[in-house]
Amino acid sequence: MTTRGSVAETVLDAVGHTPLVRLRHVLPENAARVLVKLEGTNPTGSYKDRMARAIIDGARRRGDLAAGRRVVEFTGGSTGSSLAFVCAVTGHPLSLVTSDAFSPEKLRTMRAFGADLTVLPSEGGQITPDLFVRMRAEVDRIVADEGAYWTDQFRNTDALTGYAELGREILAQARTVDVFAAAVGTAGMLAGVAAVLRAAGGARVVALEPATSAVLTGGAVDAHRVEGTATGIVPPLLTRDTYDDARAIDEGAARALARRLAREEGVFVGTSSALNVAGALELAREVGPGRTVVTVAADTGLKYLAGDLFG
């Protein structure tokens, strides 16, 4: 990996090195400082670039992914964009299974990088557990018919390698982390960062989820619109020793916060990132001054302009 100020030998070396910024205007009184890692500065505007690079690199290194072999995955958007980016650079054709429940900007980005898309219909644009079951079935068909390599993002431990680097960057920038909080999709990011933070001194790790799909906190499991999170299962990468506790965040409050972050902090993010910040603000109020709470802005608000988030 290159460092800032040096020339990247390939665009893959431009993944990472993202800024960590302190929130000032949306912070409640008598709260801990809240730092947000702006992953929207990665090449495709998402932290999933870290995962995609690590997964493809790992498979190629082990010989599981031969030169020119097709890759396949089902995705809610950012994983697809990131895999399409990495596969474009490394020369692998890519099939992605997705849905009209996810932002059109993400689907167009996948196609822009050359991926072949299968777009499944959703129930009124909602993200439901059944949607992921149907997408997985289509992946199985492509693997059987075309001999494609399935990256299996929900179980692929190579992802932890990519996200460990994110954890090391956070430590180097923040110096001290008392609480780390982030929403769970595949849980690779939470697990990868948590391992680094705990090895360095035992930060509290809090898993977040939308209250409308609250598998971790024992609430209702229903449809929601927080892309990239809450697939209706406890993902295999989220072992119980990965996190200390979990909490559910109101989706409506997160959507309102996304607009505040843009207008008051200049932090332009989507719903899942705003949910992360909402959880971090709650925790900052609870732990109080003199502590540091860190979360991640998973991607950029540019991926959500076609919807009603900023309308």
UniProtKB/TrEMBL annotation:
Cofactor dependence: pyridoxal 5'-phosphate
Superkingdom of origin: Bacteria
Keywords, A to Z, come to: Pyridoxal phosphate
Q: Residue ranges of the Tryptophan synthase beta chain-like PALP domain?
A: 12-298
Q: Which InterPro entries match?
A: Cys_Synth/Cystath_Beta-Synth (IPR050214), TrpB-like_PALP (IPR001926), TrpB-like_PALP_sf (IPR036052)
Protein name, as recorded: PLP-dependent cysteine synthase family protein
Coiled-coil region: none
Enumerate the Pfam families for this protein.
Answer: PALP
